[in-house]
Structures are given as structure tokens and as C-alpha cells.
# Entry
Amino acid sequence: MLSLAIVGLPNVGKSTLFNALTSARADAANYPFCTVEPNVGIVEVPDPRLTRIAELVKPKRVVPTVVQFVDIAGLVSGAAEGEGLGNQFLANIRETDAIVHVVRCFDDPDVTHVMGEVDPVRDREVIEFELALADLAAVEKRLDRVQRTARAGDKQALAEAPLLERARTVLQDGRALWEARLPAAHLEILRPLSLLTTKDVLYAANVSDSELHGEEGPHLRALRDAVTASGEHAEVVPFSARIEAELAELPPADRAEFLHSLGLESAGLDRLIHAGYHLLGLRTFFTVGENEARAWTIHAGDTAPVAAGTIHTDFERGFIRAETIGYDAFVAAGGLKEARERGLVRSEGRDYVVQDGDVILFRFNV
# Structure
């Protein structure tokens, strides 16, 4: 399950985004938004392909893939040193896959900015600095332990200590670790620390309503330019907290019409989820049957046995073959049975790289 952490300064639309998630998903039939903890929620991934598959197959149950959102209190300058409440929850987001950084990109004299004036580039730097300081504390704690072990001649500790020292140097400057461009092998060694500044970032830019279907304003352009210039592996997704809040109040059947009236094709929350999938290189495949039609999430490049393992480890261990058909061919044929009759279902082996939208029946033996 994809897990996204929501961070940002106070009063930038972060709570509105999370609350909109709460309301917007409350009526979902299979995966309603459920509050696991006061600050954790699970929502289904919108995918019209699964809806179309279900229309053709008419299974007893339809199960979408889901995303977990973890919301923490607004961070402020000095959070890593105990200022505000957000620092208390930083540990809760270490295990997430990516960070959603909500940034205010609109002017409104009636909505106070915690730092006085709207400046998304500065806000981005403040949050990144606080995350770097939080990582510094984690690295220093680990380095202290590793150095003691290294003095005893432990080979693993001797290899890890220089990497931690390099990471400490970067973080002491208030810089994120992604700026150090560490090799993949080094990042793998640091991975158990779940460092925040090594995670990919989605910038959820809270803009004025008019910017969603018109010309981008100066604040949004400044944020995009800053992210591009930095070389950070990130995406910028504009949304309007006000529109999302209004959308969340509507019955599900009325939401599409409301979006259409505003000239929008999709909700900002949906765009955010899809951007997360794109940023992290995730793919979706489907399984279908009389009892269930279901979406599954894998990483780009995963082979058929790995995909089978997302369903059950026995499927991967005893993998024989994957009977596969692409989504478009599946729909064009009218279902799996019809596709078989037309000879459209392929038999793929262990080396097959699963494609986004594949409909698969796994054959296995354990």
C-alpha cells in the first residue's frame, strides 16, 4: 500500500486537504475512508479501468488498491528543536513512501500566513530545513552507536561509519540528503534509518480557484521554478483547498457535475494520488473472476512472479505462468472468456515484465 505523509506550515490548507479526504471518501462502498488513528486515513485509488472491468465481469466484489495518508501537526521554524507540535509526529512519517508538502500559493488578506506574507519558495526551504535537522538527530544517534562498534573492528560498522559521517556533514548545513546525490548503494545502507530528506516529494500547491483552469499565478510559477532549478525529484500538483472542501460536502453522484461546472476534469485529490504513483514509478495490474475484480500495485519493472507475490507469497514461490491480456484488449473483447476464444490471452513466463493495466490470471503449484 502506498503511504504518503502530509507536511507543511500551519494554515496553508493542510488540514483542509486531509479533511476533504475524510469526507470525499466516506461513501465509498468497498474502501471508505477510515480513521486508523486521529491522523491516519486510508482512501481508495480512483481508477476508471477497474470500474469498466467490473461492468463487464459483474463480480460479487470490487476491490480497489488503496493509499494511506498520514497527517501531522503543522511544522514551524524550529520544529526539530521542539518548537510547535509537528516535531512530536515526525517519527510517524518516517515509514511513509513519499512526502506531500502542502504549500500556500495564493494571496488572501483574510487568511493569515504564519510567517507574515505568502512566499512558497521560503516556505519550502523552511520545511526542508526542519526535516534535515530531524534527520541529523537520527544520523548522529546512529553514528555514535556505529563508531563504538567500529572501534571493536566490526566490518559492517567500519563500512557504514564514513557514509553516516558524510550524511551528517550535509545535514549539519541544513541541506537535504537528496542534494548530496548519494549513490544508490549508499542510500540502501541508510535506508533502515528511514530518513525524511531522502524521500520523494509531491508539492501540493494550494492555489486560487481561477488558476486551476487558467493562467498560473506568480506564487505557483515561483514554486515550480525553484523545484526545477534545484533538481529535486519532485512533482508540483496544483489544487484548491476551497474547492476540495466544497466537493467533499457533495454526494458522490454530484461531484462529477460540480467539477464539470468549474471546467475541471478531476478532483485535486485524485490528481495528487496519481502524481504519487507516477513519482514513485508504481504500476497497477488487475485480477478478475466471478467473485472479485481487484486492482494491485507493483513497481515499474516488476516481473510476473513478483507481481504474483503481491497476492500471496505462495503464488510467487510456486509460479508457473501468467495468463495475461492488456486492459484495452480485455475491454475490446468484452471479458476474459471472450478474449480466450479470440486467442488474445498470452502465456507469459518468469521473465515477463508486467505492464500497467495488465489483466492477469496466475497459474502456480506449491
Summary: The longest strand covers residues 292-299. The first helix runs from residue 14 to 24. The two ends are 26 Å apart (CA to CA).
